[in-house]
Amino acid sequence: MLYVCYADNAKLAVSGSLDGDVKIWDGISNRCVQTFTRAHDGIPIRSAKFTRNAKYVLTTGTDCSVKLWELSTNRCIVAYTGAGGSGFSDYSAPASFNHNEDYVLLPDDKSGSLCTWASRTGDRKRLLALGHTAPIRDFVHSKTSPAFITCSEDCKARFWYKKL
């Protein structure tokens, strides 16, 4: 297993693995209740996160691809494309929702920018230059305000307060 995250209500957990499978786990019985087999065409999963209502899961592959999965239908409903990532990386930054889940955000190693998409439509929005001089390895967005932190191999962490 490469990544695991609980839903806000702790009734479910999601895990992503090196074999590319994403599994949904019952938080009480610890049993697997759903699997997205080869979710990113067999590419290892970098991160997996629930939406606030725990009806969807956002996954990031180590190839910088990002997908939104609907749990009720067991299918990918949006693939966020055009990040321009630098290819495969075991340490690429995870994608995340912004605080109100209107946008999906992913730092792009190649350009050093933050890629942004409309979460419901997958439409690519503008890039935000992040000012790091090396690849970004972690990215965390606040759940309550338009703030986020980026951490890079340039040994810098940057705090941002930015409405998108």
**How large, in whole angstroms, is the Cα Rg?**
15 Å
As residue ranges, the low-confidence spans are none
Pairing-aware structural class of the strands and helices?
Answer: mainly beta
What is the H/E order?
A: EEEEEEEEEEEEEEE
Give the termini separation. Answer: 33 Å
What is the number of E strands?
15
Under the CATH scheme, the architecture is 7 Propeller
> Sheet with the most strands?
4 strands, antiparallel
Pfam families: WD40
Protein name: Cleavage stimulation factor 50 kDa subunit
GO molecular function: RNA binding
WD repeats: 1-35, 45-79
Distinctive features:
single chain, mainly beta, 15 strands, globular
Protein topology:
Layout: E1 3-6, E2 12-16, E3 22-26, E4 32-36, E5 45-50, E6 56-61, E7 66-70, E8 75-80, E9 96-97, E10 103-108, E11 113-118, E12 128-129, E13 136-141, E14 147-152, E15 157-161
Describe the structure.
It is found in: Nucleus. One of its GO terms (molecular function) is RNA binding. Pfam families: WD40 (PF00400). Keywords: mRNA processing, Nucleus, Repeat, WD repeat. WD repeats lie at residues 1-35, 45-79. The protein has 164 residues and is an all-beta fold. The protein has one domain (3-161): Methylamine Dehydrogenase, Chain H (7 Propeller). It contains no helices and 15 strands. It has strands at residues 3-6, 12-16, 22-26, 32-36, 45-50, 56-61, 66-70, 75-80, 96-97, 103-108, 113-118, 128-129, 136-141, 147-152, 157-161. Strand 3 and strand 4 form a beta hairpin. The chain starts with a strand and ends with a strand. The model has no long low-confidence stretch (mean pLDDT 90).
